[in-house]
Amino acid sequence: MKKLWSFFFALVIIPTSCKRDTYCTDDYRMIIVQVTGDTLDEYYTVRNINQDTIRHSTDGFPPGNSPSLVVLTDSYFEHIRESESEFIFVGLIDDSVRVWEPYIIGADECHIYLVNGPAQIHVH
Predict the structure, then answer these.
(1) Which DSSP category does 57 fall into?
(2) Could you read off the pLDDT of 71-109 as tens digits, one per residue?
(3) In the chain, fewer beta carbons within 10 Å around the N or the C end?
(4) Contact of 102 with 88, CB cutoff 8 Å
């Protein structure tokens, strides 16, 4: 009888303790902000916890007066996988900080996602 209970216990516990396979899409996710107003000379994103400075290639995105600038992409995914972290989007004009916007960005098992942060910023 003891063996029967052990067998039953194993049948109940083992299947529920295994993690299901995860299937990720080939999408490349980006958090983007619309910037209006004055033209930024430079922009980058800083991760608060470790002060990582993340600069994005402007390939495909005209610098400065582009309607969309990259805050973070899936290229940073492995650093925040299955967690959330605070980032600061920084924009400069003539070496002076003109934009300092906080974002909370998370990542699941596959991609980054926006938790909190503005979709549009107006630079004065």
Answers:
(1) -
(2) 999 999 999 999 999 999 999 999 999 999 999 999 999
(3) N
(4) yes
Unique residue bearing structure tokens 């910023």: 121
86 three-class SS: strand
Reading the block at residue 2, the tokens are 């003891």
pTM of the model: 0.76
pLDDT one-digit tens code per residue, 21-58: 678 888 899 999 999 999 899 999 999 999 999 998 76
Helix (H, G, I), strand (E, B) or coil at 111: coil
Question: Looking at the chain, how many residues does it have?
Answer: 124
- Which residue is associated with the tokens 């996710």? 29
Sign, CA torsion 111/117/119/123? negative
DSSP per-residue string spanning 17-43: HSPPP----S---EEEEEEEESPPSEE
